[in-house]
């Protein structure tokens, strides 16, 4: 279990501060993550990788010549925010464009795509490649739905080497996609990890058993089996990945036998002994394999085997030199690049993900400013509700996912309160308060829920505006419906997927219906919140998706969806603000 | 816990086979361990490091240019045998002599010293430096009694860099001793590791507590305390090692914050953040620190802080380039060295510690050959007793040490049976059978008990000779007394130290007394064996030493000493051979 921390809520920043101190000659902290200590040379494509933290040496450990130009660093197992990705990409990008690459998880997909859009709008040609190597997470026919695990390392390395060789952005994107299409991983888990401050692992595996098809965010396997001797485990891993050899592949491969955290090097070497023999028996020639900890999951017990079916280009790029804090190969020819000038950032406290200054909001109309005060009270009530429910939300999230939902909601809602209150105190209207609050929520919480709540609040704010002379119950219901549309557009979840959509849609419908029937907003909201609560409870049971991964397998979970639950709690908390309980 | 293995008894060989496959361009397997894949250049001192395995990347992971020339690889947490150390040293040594370096543990001290003596006899100038960095294992006034933990890494690195720079043997030895004298480590443990095939960890620490002063062989701490927040832990580690700053040291240091196996990188970076601040507050300037897993203890939870008080020479050597499987720094200037020709060894199965051919023993007199048959039966009975007691011996060893005693006794006694039987079948006398059996025991078991049992059997054999016309009970008692003297000479334990000496000395005295009183050998042996059994039981309780470490602290252990217990079991088993129970 994770035992060493100061404040669990600042674990990632504290970790980054230590990392940046040790490797201060090589990497530099910027808002949202880390970049190389040297400027991106003119004409070189920048490769920025990332995702949540808890995977060291992935991903901040692979920033350096021959590998990544920067890493966006989210909280433990939580997607970084779009703001984080934008910030790191903005610093890392030189004149030749930018490639983002991250694992194919809902939160990462949303946040990196939003960052890509913003960077493109600012004139920086930006592409995104999502890694999908985990063969257990979806059938081969739905390869685009698979999640990225240890194969991340391969795609990032190949893209980084290509950029170092002088490939242009089209070519870097092409070879990254090709590396991803050539990479297959299968993993097994023997025990779950414990989050900093947590008291129990996210899952456990009975002694003598193993989870098959692990995730790297503490997700349990998609199946379970007997834990076999090392040689038999090697056989299953090899046969699993070899069965997915892409059509037309040759006989040269590279391999990663990756330890998740507490499966140690000695054990991995014992397994590798048989893996090497079996690959030879398959007629495969193994080039530059890696056996060790490359993409971990805190102190999770387990390992995975990645095979990359090589052509000459992939082999050259995989074998190319790299010099990073955690991974070195060969000799990178020294250039004499300019030290990066991070300007006033270097005056900020050493290490950690530094923050940017917000801009001042526009003033609102009297009615909108009054509404803004109610919005701030509502945000305060939501933050209090989330603080009270944090542990329980984490618990029910861990049943199906990675257990970070409670922490993310607390971070997001409290950041929204602070930002929204400042804006309201400065005279902003409802729209500006909600835009400020939504951006703060997304930036501080990161992850899937962060970006969705951020988008929802912003959409509701745009629905309310800053300039209205009067704000009616119907205006509020319409604004909330705009929030629902933003959720559906960004999150791609459909009704029935057992996500927060299943609680939000009935809430919207009830709110609109009650208001249109002539009810006052406070009464209408309370009734709608009760509908929302029942709908959230109904998300328990058979569900088509597990945690942050794309749909994996039908699985019965006895607890309701964490996102739906927190939405209902927020709706009820706001009802108490609109119509205080007597 | 360790979950991935095939046969626990071949775990180290299986691990080495995998390691050698992955790193086949860099390292080569030889009997007893690994060496660089290239010849030691003419005029270069060879640095051979080692100890038991289970510490990866220590020690086979640091063989390469700028670091070690070879690593002797014992079984998990078990000293390699003198034969292993001799073998690796013989292959690695070039024309400029050899430095052995290993941690200061009884078994390693005996085995590497025996190997040194043999190599010196063969004309290879060989020195040994034992590392003593663990400040918790003995007071500063008894610094030579301390054990080596993560400081091993520093001493090995500095010696390897000095040899690479062209230092002569005197100078390499001098700087290795200086590095050791400048290095201090303090560690803490949060939970014990589980040996391959074991069902429980070697020790556990209650939740919220920590052992202070850990060993790297699964030894628990020498004290216990509350597990504090990371910043407070950093403060205790820093204040502990800084308090031992050697007189006359300057303000430049390097540091290793080492993870033992399941304390992960993220946690170490969180601790490092405060360590770095505190060292700066102490006025110390930190050069090229390392934060990560350098000297592990399988899946043990814990960490240690090592400080090295640098002068210009140590700083240059610590910062010098190195290229090894697990540790790389800077750029080693490429030479074009000869690939090592390991001759017929390369024809042997890939990887693992390859074995050498034994030579044929001399034929014995009829009486000695008859005695030899009894010796073989006695060895068989001992091996059977050890096989039956393996788990229990491991359990009681784990109470004070590293839990490997049962496995070592099984390996040693069964190897002794095989070798002794072959020699007896070939017509050897008692001396030759016991010499063969003793050498096999020491070579296969390794560790402390292996070298001691090997020396005891050899001494008993020399006492019995190959040429006697008659072998009396008195001859046997005298030979056994010679065995005791060998034990005392080699092991340095004194009566009352609660080791096997405390069981063997009363046994010898009783056997000699009964035989001199006119008893027949079978009856005398049985009575002496009962005395031995009682004496072994009396080793329970307060004891001055813990496991394989030198005397550490008074500690009450409820179980008898494992070595004394196995000696008594062997004595009783032999009694049944001499006088079968009716």
Automatic annotation (TrEMBL), chains A, B:
Keywords: ATP-binding, Kinase, Nucleotide-binding, Transferase. Coiled coil: none annotated. Residues 330-344 have a biased composition (Basic and acidic residues). GO terms for cellular component: cytosol. One of its GO terms (molecular function) is ATP binding. Residues 373-576 form the DhaL domain. Residues 330-368 are annotated as: Disordered. NCBIfam families: PRK14479.1. This is Dihydroxyacetone kinase family protein. It comes from Nonomuraea diastatica.
